[in-house]
Design a protein that fits this description.
- The complex is a heterodimer of chains A (303) and B (265).
- Helices cover 71% and strands 7% of the residues of chain A.
- Chain A has ten helices and five strands; from the N terminus they run ββαααααββαααααβ.
- In chain A, a hairpin with a 4-residue loop joins strand 1 and strand 2.
- The longest helix of chain A has 32 residues.
- The radius of gyration of chain A is 19 Å and the shape is globular.
- The two termini of chain A are 31 Å apart.
- Chain B has two domains: 30 residues; 194 residues, Macroglobulin (MG2) domain (Immunoglobulin-like), CATH 2.60.40.1930.
- Helices cover 33% and strands 38% of the residues of chain B.
- The longest helix of chain B is centred in the first third of the chain and has 27 residues.
- The chains are: A mainly alpha (303), B alpha+beta (265).
- At the A-B interface, strand 1, helix 3, helix 8, helix 9 and strand 5 of A face strand 4, strand 5, helix 5, helix 6 and helix 7 of B.
- Strand 5 of chain A pairs antiparallel with strand 4 of chain B, so a sheet runs across the interface.
Chain lengths: 303, 265
C-alpha cells in the first residue's frame, strides 16, 4: 500500500512506515526515550530525503512523548521544575539548531554533519549503554541488586552558583547544568530531528544524579515541547515537515509504545538495554561506513 | 445578416488568417509530415499516486516523405528546475562535499523514445540542436555555480545524467519504444515514475530521415497535485506557521487520544 507524500514528493510504503513508527514507539515505550535517534536514520535509509527526514522526525515524537509523560506523571515520575529549566534551554537550542540546518544545506554539508553527529552520539551512547548493561547483567548473575543510581559524590557541578532545590528529584544543585543540557539537546533536536532523550537521560542520571525514573519522566516531559518547537521552526524556516509521513509514523508510534510498555514490564531490563545498545551501535556503524567509503562521489540536490 | 453576426464572421476570418500566417512560414521550412498528441493532457497526484502511464500517439504523412525511409523520436521532459551537483573529496580521512556546480535548468524527468537507438538515427550535432538523446542534452551551468573549478563541467554533467538514469528519471529507450499500428499511425508508451513530480511536461515528436530532422510537433502534459496533496503542499509554503501548528496539534491529539484509549497500561 503506497501513499504519496506531499512534501517529500515521493510515494512510500505506508505499512513499512507504520512498522517503522511502531518499532521506534516500541523501543520508546520500553526504555522511556523518544526514539527519534533511530527514526531519522531509518527514514533516510528508506529513501526519504534527509531534509524531510530530519524535519519530520521530531513531529511524531510529540505524540509518543505526550503518551509517555502522561503515563510517567500518573506514577509521579515528572520533575516539573527541572523540566521547565531544561525546556528553557531546549527552546533556545532548537532556535539555533534549525537555523544551522538552513546554513548547512546551503553549504552542501548537511548530510555530512547529520551523519557525523549520529556516528559520534550513537557510538558514545551505544558504547556506554553496552558496557553498563553488561555490568548490570554480571551483577544480576552474582545476585546483587541492580541500581542505575550511583552514590552521591561531590563534583565540580556542586560548586556552581544559582543553586536551587528540586524537590521531586531530591536534589539541591545549580540551575546552570540543566539549562546547558537543555541547550545542547535543543540544538541536537533542531539539527538531527531527535527529541534528545537518549542523550538527556544518561546525563541526568550519571552527571546530575537524578533518580532513573524521574530522569525518564522529566526527559519525556521536556521532549514534548522541544519537539513541538522544532517542528514549528522546521515548518517555518525549512518547509520540509511532511504531515502525511508524520501521521503514519505517530500512529505506528503510539501503538508500538503501548506494546513496548507492556513488554518492558515483563522482560529483563538489562538484556533489553544490551539489545538496544547493539542496535544503536549497528546504525551508527552503518552511517560510519558511508563517511569513509561513500557509494558515490557525486550527489545531487535541488537548489 | 445582422451587423452583429457579420462582425463575428469577420473576426472568425481574421482569426483564421492570423493562424495561417503563423503556420505558413513553418510549413515552408519543414513539411508538415508528423502530427501527434498525448492521450491525456492532465494527470493528477492523489494520496494513492504511484506514477502515471502516458500514451503518446501520432501519424506520419507518407506523401510529404515521398516514400523515403524514416525514424521517429519522441522526447518528454519536465519540470525544469535548478540542480546542484556535489563532488566529494577526501579531507582528513572523511569524504566531504568540496566541489559543486549548479545547473540552471535541469528537467527532473527526461525520456527519449525512438524507433532505433538515437546514435544510429542522426549524428550528434543534429541531435544536440534539439536535445534528442542523453548525450545530446544541453544543461547550461549557472554563472556562479562552481565552488572549486578543479573538475571540468562535463564531469559534473555526466555525473548528473548518470545519477538521474540510475534513479529512473532519465530514460533512453529504443527497443519497442515506438510501435507502428499500420503504416501511418504510431504509438509510444512511457511510465512516468512518481518521483518525477508535479509540473509541466513537454513532449516533442520528431520525424527524421537521412540523419536530419524532417518534421516536428509537440504536446503538453500537466501533472497536478489535487485535493489533500495540493492543500498540504500549498499550506507548507504559503502558511508555514499554520502548517507547523497543525502538525503539532495533530501529534498532540494522537498522543493524548492514545493515552485515553490505553488508560490501563
Amino acid at each position: 500500500m503506497h501513499v504519496y507524500l506531499p512534501i517529500a514528493e515521493l510515494p512510500v510504503n505506508a505499512l513499512l512506515m507504520l512498522a517503522l513508527g511502531g518499532a521506534v514507539g516500541f523501543l520508546s515505550g520500553m526504555f522511556g526515550v523518544g526514539g527519534g535517534f533511530l527514526m531519522t536514520p531509518m527514514l533516510i535509509f528508506a529513501g526519504v530525503p534527509s531534509a524531510v527526514a530530519v524535519a519530520t522526525g521530531a513531529n511524531p515524537l510529540i505524540a509518543s512523548s505526550i503518551t509517555g509523560t502522561i503515563a510517567q506523571w500518573r506514577r509521579k515520575n515528572v520533575d516539573f521544575k527541572l523540566g521547565l529549566i531544561l525546556l528553557a534551554g531546549g527552546a533556545a537550542g532548537a532556535l539555533f539548531g534549525v537555523q544551522i540546518v538552513k546554513l548547512l544545506r546551503q553549504a552542501g554539508q548537511f548530510d555530512l554533519t547529520v551523519s557525523l553527529l549520529y556516528v559520534v552520539f550513537m557510538s558514545v551512547v551505544g558504547g556506554l549503554m553496552f558496557i553498563e548493561s553488561l555490568r548490570a547483567l554480571r551483577k544480576h548473575r552474582q545476585g546483587k541488586p541492580v541500581s542505575m543510581r550511583r552514590p552521591a559524590q561531590h563534583t565540580w557541578i556542586h560548586g556552581l552558583p544559582l543553586k536551587t532545590r528540586f524537590k521531586a528529584s531530591k536534589l539541591y544543585i545549580s540551575a546552570i547544568p540543566p539549562a546547558a543540557l537543555g541547550i545542547l539537546v535543543g540544538l541536537l533536536s533542531g539539527i538531527m530531528g531527535v527529541g534528545g532523550g537518549f542523550i538527556m537521560v544518561p546525563i541526568l542520571i550519571y552527571l546530575l544524579r537524578v533518580p532513573t525514573n524521574l530522569a525518564i519522566g522529566t526527559s519525556l516531559f521536556q521532549v514534548i515541547f522541544v519537539s513541538a518547537i522544532t517542528t514549528v521552526l522546521q515548518a517555518v524556516w525549512n518547509q520540509t515537515v511532511d504531515i502525511a509521513l508524520a501521521l503514519i509514523l505517530m500512529v505506528g508510534g503510539v501503538l508500538g509504545a503501548q506494546a513496548g510498555a507492556v513488554a518492558g514490564q515483563k522482560l529483563r531490563a538489562e538484556q533489553l538495554r544490551l539489545l538496544l545498545a547493539i542496535l544503536v551501535l549497528a546504525v551508527g556503524l552503518r552511517l560510519l561506513v558511508g563517511l569513509f567509503a561513500p557509494a558515490d562521489l557525486f550527489s545531487i540536490s535541488r537548489v | 445578416m445582422t451587423p452583429h453576426a457579420s462582425n463575428r464572421l469577420n473576426a472568425f476570418f481574421a482569426g483564421w488568417l492570423a493562424l495561417l500566417a503563423l503556420i505558413a512560414p513553418a510549413r515552408a521550412e519543414i513539411p508538415d509530415s508528423i502530427e501527434a498528441e498525448a492521450s491525456q493532457n492532465y494527470f493528477y497526484i492523489e494520496p494513492s499516486y504511484n506514477g502515471s502511464s502516458i500514451v503518446l500517439f501520432g501519424s506520419v504523412d507518407h506523401d510529404a516523405l515521398k516514400g523515403k525511409a524514416f525514424d521517429i523520436a519522441v522526447t518528454i521532459e519536465g519540470p525544469v528546475k535548478p540542480v546542484t551537483v556535489w563532488k566529494k573529496n577526501r579531507r582528513a580521512g572523511l569524504w566531504i562535499n568540496t566541489e559543486s556546480l549548479t545547473f540552471d535548468g535541469v528537467p527532473n524527468y527526461y525520456a527519449v523514445l525512438s524507433t532505433r537507438p538515437v546514435s544510429e538515427i542522426a549524428p550528434l550535432a543534429e541531435r544536440k540542436a534539439r536535445g534528442i538523446g542523453l548525450d545530446a542534452l544541453s544543461l547550461p551551468p549557472g554563472k556562479d555555480g562552481l565552488n572549486t573549478p578543479a573538475a571540468a563541467p562535463q564531469e559534473f554533467q555526466s555525473a548528473l545524467i548518470r545519477l538521474k538514469q540510475s534513479s529512473g528519471l532519465f530514460v533512453e529507450q529504443s527497443k519497442g519504444a515506438v510501435e507502428f499500428l499500420g503504416t501511418r499511425l504510431f504509438r509510444s508508451h512511457v511510465f512516468l515514475p512518481a518521483a518525477a513530480g508535479a509540473g509541466l511536461y513537454r513532449a516533442k515528436f520528431y520525424i527524421l530521415e537521412n540523419g536530419k530532422v524532417a518534421g516536428e510537433t509537440g504536446a503538453r502534459i500537466r501533472l497536478k497535485k489535487i485535493g489533500i496533496e495540493d492543500r498540504l503542499s500549498t499550506a507548507a509554503v504559503f502558511y508555514p506557521w499554520l502548517y507547523g501548528a497543525i502538525a503539532v496539534t495533530l501529534a498532540a491529539l494522537v498522543g493524548g487520544g492514545a493515552s485515553l484509549v490505553f488508560r490501563r497500561v
